[in-house]
Design brief:
CATH class: Alpha Beta
Largest sheet: 3 strands, antiparallel
CATH superfamily: Inositol polyphosphate kinase
Strand content: 15-25%
Radius of gyration: 17 Å
CATH architecture: 2-Layer Sandwich
Structural class: alpha+beta
Helix content: 25-40%
Mean pLDDT: 76
Strand order of the largest sheet: 3-4-5
Low-confidence stretches: none
Number of helices: 3
Shape: extended
CATH topology: D-amino Acid Aminotransferase, Chain A, domain 1
Order of helices and strands: EEEHHEEH
């Protein structure tokens, strides 16, 4: 974990926190209101802004990009849901917005 150099660029190296689990359920969440890099060209920035406006990224500052949920009792293969599937859009469109609003209103959280 930390900063690494690769191809002349500095990258963040993340730790695989699920490596100790045999059957982890995982959720990929993108956090932040700006999802483009500042040196991107105008067309790239516009594409990012359009994508963000179609998700909770622009309004809540985060979006669920995907998840892998392992059912209980264990099944042979994980159940997956991707953002373009109706099940994930339903979560992102309704329950996720409610959850995010409750989280943002929680007393004692840093700004």
């Amino acid at each position: 974990m930390g900063i690494v150099e690769a191809g002349g660029r500095q990258l963040v190296a993340l730790e695989d926190v699920a490596r100790h689990y045999r059957r982890p359920s995982i959720c990929d969440i993108k956090v932040g209101f700006r999802t483009w890099y500042p040196s991107g060209d105008a067309a790239y920035i516009q594409r990012c802004q359009l994508k963000d406006a179609a998700t909770t990224q622009a309004t809540l500052g985060f979006k669920v990009c995907g998840m892998q949920a392992r059912p209980h009792p264990p099944a042979p293969a994980p159940q997956r849901s991707l953002p373009d599937q109706p099940s994930m859009q339903a979560v992102a469109g309704g329950a996720l917005a409610t959850w995010g609003a409750k989280l943002a209103a929680t007393p004692g959280l840093p700004d």
